Batch of 2 targets.
Target 1
Amino acid sequence: MTHPHSWWQTGVIYQIYPRSFLDSNKDGIGDLSGITSKLDYLRWLGVDALWLSPINPSPMADFGYDISDYTDIHPLFGTLQDFDTLLQQAHQRDLKVILDFVPNHTSDEHPWFQQARSSRTNEKRDWYIWRDPAPDSGPPNNWTSLFGGSAWQFDEQTGQYYLHLFDVKQPDLNWRNAHVRQAMYDVLRFWLDRGVDGFRIDVLARLLKDEQFRDNPVNPQWKPGDPPNVRQVSRYTLDQPGMHEIVREMRAVVDRYGERMLIGELYLPMERVVRYYGEQLDEVHLPFNFQLVTMPTWEARTIRQVVDAYEAALPSGAWPNWVLGNHDRPRIATRVGREQARTAQMLLLTLRGTPTCYYGDELGMQNVAVPPELIHDPPGKDDPEHSRDPQRTPMQWDSSPNSGFCPPEVQPWLPVADDFQTYNMAVEQHEPRSFLTLVHTLLTLRRSLPALTVGSQRSLDQPNPACFVYLRQHGRQRYLVALNFSSQEQVVTLPEQGQGRLLLSTYLDQEGPTIALGEIHLRGNEGLLIEVET
Ligand code: NOJ
């Protein structure tokens, strides 16, 4: 009998930022062999799939999101053979491997762009987006780069501007060109043939731009100091007509390979995100749901609204997913504090849908202040406040210098957190109440309880505005999750007369006692997982 759910539905995804996971060759930068050597840790932790941020050859203007060869491995990270070893070792441990697919732009050092910029008549010219200067010889329209400044760069040699929605070294590909599409689908096939299990697709909703190149409306609320990516409303550079057809084409490529999957990076309003499942569920398997990352406040009421609205908006048969952090956003333990982050983990790992965990978040890692002279990230160079380096610092493995990320005599590419001797894998694995023990326990429970992986989800009405309570149910098994989003003690009253058994408190100091469901007491920042007795 075939399993009714796929691995990407019951499983948990773990995002690795390869530069920062483990340096095995002593250059201060993480690599593939480093990742391979930690697969047993990931298996122990209890995740099911690894998503690797880009590992292809790249001048590293945007740390791998500027690719100069889609079908090879950057020598910093290793070789294709190292990749095959990683894949084989991962599969041996029943871990899937998801690669980052970056279709919106290449590096300006990619041979395609080198050819395209060589002359207006080159056969690759139309693979990118070129426009004549405006009558005043300035940029063709007002579009701004998400990293700041104009999105257009003048090319002296050929007298035209090329478009780059990100860094000037990331020219946008022209997805209206059929050859570009075919070349990029060949890239997918190259990795699928090698055995990868899926792709996370970078800036998926920006592949098509307005055919008339109309100006974007300026965001009237933007003021100096605000992030450059909200300077304009991306009306003509985001989610354009024709996008869904492209995603269906990508899906058709992947579907020929059986149980492989696609995740779309989509920062869009939720009702537009869910359209990327496809009308026939024939687009991406998981359009990333970033609501827990982007919500301006971390409050019980807002979270309940978001969960309920998302559940209601999901097309029939679509599988939900949740994200708490990634390499582009401040870490959860920084956004909400370490105490509250424990409850945030309980939320992520008990909600219905596939969770994506960001490396190091399982340790309670926080953003690390990076001195201005050490900033690497392009948007951070103009404005340190918008640097993404602080959430990309080395994984904290143990208490040795450099936290075991690289040898003591080597300088890691970004600084290691000051508190690494308290927050690291080796120390936390042995502490019964550590952050890691909590995440490990949550992942173990999730795996063993079908109600948490495939069960239904229902928010429960209760009067306390500081708490969010919901029920996960599968057959006769029912589990109640009660989360306190405040740092004060709270009491949740429910109409339920029954009782339950406490399976887990985020404090990890009690389990087993019977709890009357009518009145549940929560300590500050506490989350409880309760098995409802039938
Ligand atoms: C989204 C990626 O997550 C981010 O890190 C990158 O800078 C942009 N896309 C451009 O590729």
Target 2
Amino acid sequence: MKVDVLLGLQWGDEGKGKLVDALTRDYDVIARFQGGPNAGHTLEFNNQKHVLHTIPSGIFHSDKLNLIGNGLVIDPVVFKKEVDRLAGFGMNIRKNLFISKKSHLILPTHRLLDAASETSKGTSKIGSTLKGIGPAYTDKTGREGLRVGDILEDNFLEKYNYLKEQHLNKIKQFDYPIDLEPLEKEWMTAIEFLRTFQFVNGEYLVNEWLGTGLRILAEGAQGSMLDIDFGSYPYVTSSNTTCAGACTGLGVAPGTIGNVIGIFKAYCTRVGSGPFPTELLEETGERLRTTGREFGATTGRPRRCGWLDLVALRYTVMLNGVTSLIMTKADVLSGFDTLRVATAYIINGKTTTEIPFDTDTPVEPVFTDLPGWSEDISEMRSKDELPENLKGYIRYIEEQLGVPVTIVSVGPDREATVHLSSLLMAHG
Ligand code: GDP
Ligand code: IMO
Ligand code: MG
């Protein structure tokens, strides 16, 4: 058996939560491989909306297993809130959820450091979700981090206090006001809560599952354009959001990776700072934001909106070795006479199809215009019902990316998907 990977190809919020949940029926295990509570994965079914931050999006299927991989950074406080919320829906997830001992812990002082560092940057801030992600991964690579497995050790408090002191010294340099005590109290309670979950050697477990023939779907967080290596550095997150991150974030060998399912919105959004060549700053952007309800699932911040960027998508399809595509939020584009997609950039007077190294470089997108569709597609469930111009839009994307679009999502609900196999060019 292979590990399939589902990951975002843009700047996050592509609809990963919805699709992982919808695809969970085809798998036995859902395994998150990186990121932390900066993620907000929304699922909707039975007229209920759920937002997950740390817990894999397969959790609502009681017969499936879920793994939080070693590649994650976990804030016990956020985790406890998530679990408590699920308990409010009558769910006990203890049996189906496994947490890698090697995943790292976000301390309250990581969050404070995140805030202090962002404040100090002024207008050049990253636009972090302020969940402590950057500082927690910094400690991981700096070999000072606290891991989930450390909770079980006798010297846990000693290690915690050492790290906390380091952080407090750093915060002093920022001259940032803090009130740590209540945060620390809440965190310690949450640590005791976390302790009651199943801690595992994730890398052994996941390979054992593979060996016994279980079907595994690795769930990415954020998007490939926020990857620490390949995103618009420094306006990125602090983990590898691309496919290789599934190997290091779970402990599976590259050869075990099967399908790489790349998910993208039919247009683009971005939260936080950083380049966004196709951004629409006028009423068209506002229209996408309103119709698409483009407000962050984690922070509530309005998302920046723009036309589809095929330069970025070609890049992330390449980086991830994407084998099939899912396009979400096609319903949001209904009613536009013309849809624009960027196929190249003009940089310093030269046309290029590459993402520039320097994020400050002014980039002018080269657009191709495609005809829109007026039909409300949100209730459509079969490929035959889809408007011709939507099929044309998809066909154009497939041609440009050389990968088939196999699912189109037409609404937030679990069931609001249209399977396209054998419909378009790339399917023959
Ligand atoms: P994720 O981080 O990739 O899981 O995505 P988010 O949950 O942050 O953001 C996606 C938003 O779009 C959520 O509010 C979803 O409920 C919603 N959504 C997902 N797919 C569709 C779709 O096809 N159409 C519409 N209108 N909304 C969708
Ligand atoms: P999901 O999994 C969208 C963005 C932040 C900021 C940058 C760095 O829901 O798609 P961080 O908190 O990681 O230090 O922030 O990355 N960001 C996301 N944007 N979706 C996400 O996750 C994101 N996680 C981080 O807005 O620009
Ligand atoms: Mg999100």
